[in-house]
Structure formats: structure tokens, C-alpha cells
Amino acid sequence: MQIPTDGEIRSLHLEHAPTREAFDLVYTHCRIVCELAEHIVRADSLPLDVGLVRAGCLLHDIGVYRLFDGSGELDRARYVRHGVLGHELLAEEGYPEALCRFCSCHTGVGITRDDVHMRGLPIPVDDYLPGTPEEEVVMYADKFHSKADPPVFLTAGAYTRKVSGFGPDKAALFGAMVERFGEPDVAGIAHGYGHTVLD
């Protein structure tokens, strides 16, 4: 599989971002997630396709652009759709399924078809779960940074509290990932971006 270069991915973001502000928000987040993922991979010497992880990080939130309205406002009420929208966008651009899945399989700690049914989520009924170690790392790294207004970093403790609102099973899933992958140097990475860390 041909993995796109950083420059090609940046150009794709620029092509689909409705405004410069949207590009700055989403692409910066993707770069941060990439940095977090690289820290996770380095810390544990995980046997992964590092190039695939990098591309997955830089592409995972590209569907967010399709949730901005004509006035530049982000539709946060339907935000859960950004993964499937990104999957569709990359498929339309001719990207292979292995890259499209980084979009649809990174939300929360994974979305099951039961979650879609029980919560009435506005996405097709299906399982949106990581199926490879690379997908798991991208999903995990994504939990440590939020595109909130203003953007913030989260410690493992802060994300555990956040995900607990979706049930103890989701918190347990995240806890198992922390145990498996360790916690990246959130404070050190946040310092480079001037973002607050929620502890």
C-alpha cells in the first residue's frame, strides 16, 4: 500500500477545510495526535508500521471539515458523525480501506453497534472498533488532546473521568489501554503548543 506523504496529507486538509481557522484547528490537532502516538510507540518500542500510524494520525479527523456550516460554525451536536464522514471522504479520494478506517474507528474508545442502537447515534449501525495495533495507537493517542474551544490536552485521569460518562465499561476499556500503552508525556508536548493540560 502506498502511504501518502505528510505534504500530500497537508494538501488534502487544505483542499477540504472550509476556512483557514478550520484547517488550523483540525490539522494542528492531527499533528499533535501524531506527536503523542510517536511518543507512545517510542516509549514501548511497539512493533508497528510507524509510517501507517503517522498517516493515520494525520488523517483521522479529516471528516470534521464536513461538519462546519456556511458560517464556519462546527456542528457539535452531530460531531459523532465525523469518523464516518472522514471514511467517506478518503474513500471518495481513492484512499485504501486501511487508511479510511483510521477515521471511522478512532472515536471514543470504540463504538459498537449496540452503542449506536442504545444511544440513537446518527451513524449507520455497525461496529466502529480498531482492528489493528496501528488503529489502536491512533485511537489511544487521540484521547490526550481535544479540539475544545480553546484546545486542551488531557491526562489519562482527565480522560477516564470524561469517558466514565459513557459507562464503566468504556472507562475500563480506556484503563486497559493505559496499562498496555502507558501514558505519553502530555505536559511536555503541551508546553510546545501553549495549550492547557486538564489533570
Could you list some keywords that capture this structure?
199 residues; three-stranded mixed beta sheet
3D structure, described in words:
The structure is a single chain. By secondary structure, the chain is mostly helical. The protein has a domain at 6-143. Helix content is 57%, strand content 4%. The chain is built from 10 helices and 3 strands; from the N terminus they run αααααααββαααβ. It has helices spanning 6-16, 20-44, 50-59, 82-92, 97-104, 113-119, 133-142, 156-164, 168-181, 186-193, and strands at 145-146, 152-154, 196-198. The protein has a 3-stranded mixed β-sheet with strand order 1-2-3. It is globular. It starts with 5 loop residues before the first helix and ends with a strand.
Structural class from helices and strands? mainly alpha
**Order of adjacent strands in the largest pleated sheet:** 1-2-3
Compute the gyration radius: what is it?
16 Å
- The averaged pLDDT comes out at 96
Q: Give helix and strand order, one letter per element, not per position.
A: HHHHHHHEEHHHE
Straight-line distance between termini: 39 Å
Number of strands: 3
